[in-house]
Fold each of these.
Amino acid sequence: MTIKVKQLQKKSKKNSAFAQHKSLSIQFSLDGFSFCISNSETKEILLFTEYTFSSSIASPELLLDKIIRVFDTDKDLQQDFTSVFAIHQNNLATLVPNKLFDRNNLAPYLKYDVKTLKTDFITYDLHTIIAANTVYIPYVNINNYLFQNFGEFEYKHHSTVLIDKLLNYSENDSEEQFFVHVSPSHLDIVVCKEGKLLFYNSFSYNTKEDFIYYVLFTAEQLQMDPNSFQLTFIGDIEKESDIYSITYTYIRNIHFMNPINSFFTDSEDFSNHSNFILIA
């Protein structure tokens, strides 16, 4: 399987690459693997690298094989880090309000949406802004590999990071904000207002018709008029894509997220609205 590599280093601050203390943030899914290295003290981004697979990996076991190959060949990952943070991106998760949450009995929360096995390890993330938890199945084999390489590290589900960042981003907006985070094989929809979460869900899609169906279905359920509300795209999508075109057919007010971090400004390989979960 061919691996396409995109690597970008912030040209205006090359001397930052010599930072003595560095942090590593990793995001992985069955579609790809990316990582960010930053200065532990100043939080300045030093390096971002993205590996995208030509097609989705069939299993977490095969994904681990790819990740091991990356770690064995990418010298930027072969150094000491003061901290490591991993983000599991998959659709093996659900959001549970605190009022209904029992941390000692996690399996029932997933049984209606996710096919689980008795041997699955299920965990949860506590949200920092809303009174809810993300219950999910992490890629345990990858966690074990990272532990072997780095020792103790922190990890979360991608939806936890996405929701909390978007709530912070939109806390001063008095209008409802309809965000769509795009990945190669699934989309996350987050609707919020003044820092409060109104809706979240994740959908798998194979075609552009699947994609627009979930967007319009969500808008209908929330009684949001496609002719009036603003949709903000984040992630792996560009204006020239088929997904953007079909969305614009039904929703007229479409925007790309304005970057919080200017790291990708002037980049030919990455858009400012991409990689919001890992860099924001």
Amino acid sequence: MSAPPLFGAGDPSADCIADSAGGLTFDLDAPGLPDTTGDWSAALVLRRRGSEEETEEVRLPLAPDGNGRLRAVLPSTVALPEGRWDVYAASADAEPRRLVPGLADLRSLVDRRPGPSTSPLAVRIPYATKHGNLSLRSWLRGPHAEAGDLLLSPTGLTGHGRLYRVQDPAAWLSGAVVEARLRRDPSVVRTAPVTAAEGAATDGTDGQDFSFTLRWAELAGEWHGGLDVWDLWLRTADGTGSARMARLLDDIADKKQIFTYPAKDVDAAYAPAQAGPYYTADNDLAIRVDERPPAAR
């Protein structure tokens, strides 16, 4: 009699545990796991979505954990290029099968504060797709400007952030600016000076915290109808270093629908407009300027 399928009849499920360094542990149910493993060939397979070239794939060995389950580990030191990675389980020569999400312990990702380092910051957040499958959202940033509180006023946006993955954050931020780049014409740029947090050298922040204020009127001056999007970057005074502003250090894979902000009315020269911040599909921080709805005029 042949052994039952390694992962059972249905799609196998995986529990995920995240650590504060950016690593992930996957625990899979394996109802057909034999008592003696012999020549073990099971693997967790990550496939990057949307690649037009040869499929980009990362294979992690799956090993029995002694409790009837299989375990694979994705350490933070394993480079996983930015993007969305679909998760599969493979056994011997069988076609890899999609995993479905089990329990997710992502507590270590909430309010994550990475330690000092100049290596790229690895962020991986597991999530369920709209079809109920398990996928990962991966970022690899260095340097990284983590967006914090955003305060909207009738005249502009005041933002707070924290800089990671540079040798000397205080020196990097000295004279730095936040740069708004117009997406339809990247040569059009508006800047706002950065203010380092007071007492940064003595309160344990190591000079990493900063704030800035961008005025709506400066962005709306380039608006001539339709939708304008301004991408926000943190740039050094001499222009040799830059970091995309984004919100990555938590357990939310897609922030666009979660962190929403009201648009503020702007009296643009072209027509009545409105402006406000939002997070893109990649969790990067941007500002949109658009026509004010007639009912709001």
